[in-house]
Design goal:
The chain has 142 residues and is mainly α. It has 2 domains: 44 residues, no CATH class; 74 residues, Winged helix-like DNA-binding domain superfamily/Winged helix DNA-binding domain (Arc Repressor Mutant, subunit A, Orthogonal Bundle). Helices cover 65% and strands 7% of the residues. The protein has 7 helices and 2 strands. The chain has a two-stranded antiparallel sheet. Helix 5 crosses helix 6. The radius of gyration is 22 Å and the shape is elongated.
């Protein structure tokens, strides 16, 4: 895939005001274009619109991943241990047993971790960590 920036025509510039008037072209290989066209057809959507939607969604996911990576780095060593065990699906009581701390202390570490990730539940934390898969890249707390 190759991205090329084109100078907008007056008509295109007017049509794309929310995007600051810039237009870009994507050159897709045959297989990728075929997949995009088929998916767009199934959704009754123009391929260009679907491509823009998918790109926007991908950029949003990348921004979320980058924020989560930064949050991982802000965890204390004990919060990292709790997060790792949460990722594995352990309950607070099981985490307390493994780390030889009280369940209330685990609860506190979970709460601090949720705050740093701006999440509301341990289940959300677990899903995020599983999606990231990046917890393994932080081998200093594995």
């Amino acid at each position: 895939m190759r991205v090329r920036r084109d100078a907008p025509t007056k008509r295109e510039e007017h049509a794309s005001l929310p995007y600051s008037g810039e237009q870009y072209s994507l050159n897709l290989d045959g297989e990728l274009w075929t997949r995009l066209r088929r998916t767009a057809l199934a959704r009754d959507q123009p391929p260009e619109g679907l491509a823009a939607d998918l790109l926007a969604r991908g950029l949003d996911q990348e921004a979320q991943r980058a924020r989560a990576e930064a949050s991982l780095g802000s965890l204390t060593p004990r919060e990292q241990q709790v997060a790792l065990l949460t990722r594995r699906g352990l309950t607070n009581r099981q985490i307390a047993t493994v780390l030889v701390i009280s369940p209330e202390t685990v609860k506190t570490h979970v709460r601090h971790t949720l705050e740093k990730f701006e999440l509301h539940s341990k289940a959300e934390l677990r899903l995020l960590l599983l999606e990231l898969g990046s917890i393994q890249r932080h081998s200093h707390w594995m």
